[in-house]
Amino acid sequence: MNALRLDFKENGNSVMVKKISFEVYNLYLNSIYWHNIFIKEPRKEYLDLLREFLLKAIDSEKNFSPIYSALASNTLFQLEYGISTDRRLLEFAKSMCFKALEIDKNDTRARSILAALYIKENRKMEAYREVSEIYRMNPQNLIVNGTLGSLYQYSGLLDKALEKYKKVKKENPLDLVTSINIARIYIYQGKFSKAEKELRKILQSSENSFALSYMGIALSYSGKLEEAEKLLQNSIQKYSNERGLLLSLATVYSRERKFDKADEILKNAEPFFFNDPDRAYRVATCYALKEDKYSTLKWLRASINLGNENYALFKNDPYLENLRGDKDFKELMKEMESRWKRYKKKFTL
What we know:
The protein has a domain at about 1-155: Tetratricopeptide repeat domain (Serine Threonine Protein Phosphatase 5, Tetratricopeptide repeat), CATH 1.25.40.10. Helix content is about 75%, strand content about 5%. It is built from 19 helices and two strands. It has helices spanning about 20-40, 45-60, 65-80, 90-105, 110-120, 125-135, 140-155, 160-170, 175-190, 190-205, 210-220, 225-240, 245-255, 260-270, 270-275, 275-290, 295-305, 310-315, 325-345, and strands spanning about 5-10, 15-20. Helix 4 (about 90-105) runs antiparallel to helix 5 (about 110-120) and helix 11 packs parallel to helix 13. It is globular and about 60 Å long.
C-alpha cells in the first residue's frame, strides 16, 4: 500500500476524503508535533522546524489543504510572537489560506486563520462574515470559537470573548493559548486577582514566556511591583530574545517611575512594538504613566490601526487615567465608542 486514505470528520460527518503518501502524512504529523512544542515554549527554532516540515510536504503534495492552512498559521505566529515585524507576511499568510480553500472550500482552519488575518488588518466586519459562516455550520468547533473570542476581544466585547474562550477551555482544558487569553480578558476587565490566579495555574505546568509576560502585567496592576520586576528580570535571563517580556518590564519600570530604564527598553525595540496591536497599546500605557500625552496618543492610534479597538480597555484602564480629561483623548474615545456600538449590534453569535 503506497498511500493513506484520510477521512476528515466533524460531528461524525465526513468533510473531506483525501489520499496522500505515508511520507507526506509523516511530514504533516511532524509539523503538528513542533506546533504543539512551540505553543508550550514559543521559540523561533521550533517555528522554523515546523515550517521546514510543511515546505517539504508541499514539495511532495500540492493538493492537501491542511498543509497550506498550517503554513498560514505558522506565518501568523511569526507576527503574533514577534519573530518577525514584516507585515507583508500577512499577504503571504492570506495567500496560503486562499490556496487551502481552492482545494477544500470547507477547510475550517484556513477560514478561521483568514478571519484572524482580517482582524490584524482592522477589517473586523469581513472577519465576522468569514467566521460566522463556518460557525453556523459547526458552532461547536473549537478553532472557530477561539477565533470569535479573538474578534470580540479586539472589538471590546469582553463578556462575549470570555464566553467563547471558556467554551474552548471546557472542551480542551490543556489549551494553553486559550488559558492565556482568558487571563488577558480578566486584566482588561480590571479583575487582576482572577488574571493572576489563571496565570499561576498555567505557569505551574508550563513556563511559557507569554504567560510570564502577562503575569508581570497583572502584578503591576495589582501593585505587586517588586514581585513583578523580579519575575520579569529572571524570565528575561532565560528568554533573552523575548521582547514581550522586555515590554512588560518597561511597564513595571514606568509604574515605579523608573522612566530612564523604561525609555531604554522602548527606544531599542520600537520597530518591534509598532507592528503588534497589544504591544503598541502597552507602549502607550508606559508613556501615559510618564504623562507624555503626545507619545501616548501616537501609540494608542497605532494600536487601533493594527486592530485593537478594545473600547472597554481604553475606557477603564487605570494607566490611562491622566488622559481622561484631555480633548484629543475624548475625541479618540468618541470614535471608538461609535465603532464599539456598531460591533455590539452586528456581532450577535
